[in-house]
Amino acid sequence: MRPEALIFDVFGTCVDWRTCIARELAAVLPGADALALADAWRGEYQPAMERIRAGNRDYVALDDLHRENLNLVLGRFGLAVPDRDGLNRAWERLDPWPDVVPGLHDLRGHAIIAPCSNGSIALMTRLARHAGLPWDCILGAEIARDYKPRPGVYLASCAALRLAPESVMMVAAHNDDLEAARAAGLATAFVPRPMEYGPDRQSDLGPAQDWDVVASDFPALSRQLFG
């Protein structure tokens, strides 16, 4: 198939959040276990969004959830950081995996490309500027006022492009993201990121279903879709 647009998960699929967040934590907390802190901070991500998905809280942008989660984690570890707002902006300074920028440029020559992330428009815009991600526009959670894997997030991205879901391909390194996108009627592409959680990762090492495309990296995805 040749999709008219590709929308991308960002954290983990496009950028190496764990290494970069640990690096920023190590800079402000040199005596702490930076990787453990990064994992703990990320560990609060799904529970915080689930309260919104379940209807127990109105929509709150991920920037603010990250900041609340940082407070929780620093309290749990008994750590103090004077400039917590500055540290929270570390999520805007994540580096891409090596194949991502050239692969996105290849794909952009054939189709619209945009993030479909749980990150806010502000976060995704600043991250794109830092990482050199050549998006055509910013889509995802904020335009839907909800969080993946709720179907409305994928469908709002399609609607914003005035495209039918079957003309849009969701690209992710996470099988549950693709499962939800497929259920909403989108095409799917799996690109593994085995080092997202470090060498001991146990999940998402390979495709869990017969996704429309399985590619080793973004340039391979472009070749498989467009030749």
TrEMBL record:
Pfam families: Hydrolase. InterPro entries: 2-HAD, HAD-like_sf, HAD-SF_hydro_IA, HAD_sf, PGP-like_dom2, S-2-haloacid_dehalogenase. It catalyses: an (S)-2-haloacid + H2O = a (2R)-2-hydroxycarboxylate + a halide anion + H(+). Keywords: Hydrolase. The keyword Hydrolase applies. GO terms for molecular function: (S)-2-haloacid dehalogenase activity. Its EC number is 3.8.1.2. It is an enzyme of class 3 (hydrolase). The keyword Zinc-finger does not apply. Belongs to the HAD-like hydrolase superfamily. S-2-haloalkanoic acid dehalogenase family. Catalyzes the hydrolytic dehalogenation of small (S)-2-haloalkanoic acids to yield the corresponding (R)-2-hydroxyalkanoic acids. This is (S)-2-haloacid dehalogenase. It comes from Halovulum dunhuangense.
